[in-house]
Amino acid sequence: MRLEIRKRILPFLLTWMLILALPFTVEAAPKYFYQLYINPENFGLVVFPKESIFPELEEVVQSLDFKKAESGEAVMRSGSKKENFTYMMPKDVQKKHRLGKFIILQILNDGVGIMVGIYEQEFGLTLPTKVFIVQELKGNISKTLDIFRKQLRQEKEEIEWIPDAILKRELIGHY
Fold first, then answer.
1. Angle at CA 21, nearest 5°, toward 18 and 22?
2. Which of 14, 19, 103, 174 is the most exposed place for a label (fewest CB within 10 A)?
């Protein structure tokens, strides 16, 4: 009978020992801080970790007409379709600045490589796997901004303003 009791109690004791030991063995997730830049067109550029921003990167950002807007602790977020995850600004900061489209730059530990993410409300969060160096960024950011501009022009062209209603062009032909 004693052997049977030991067999029942042993798993219970092992489980509790594991639970009590977990807080001491699990490391806390690292804290990252971001720097948000905004351009006159209200497109954003989020760079993290803020502490790793180096002068050449700052020059590229400023040459693209981005200005510092806000900084703080980065949070892990997904895209609008719950796909992909990366650190970026909190959702309330995004709403505060009315940013529907922005670029995320993650400076890698080597201090040279940069990973790029693109957040766009319709398509979600895109995280290409290519690592860039700062000299490649200016052209790629400019191309992405051109895509953002083209999307905005198309969105504006699709909407017709009619008293008391907003209708898409396709619907206008039905009246």
1. 85
2. 174
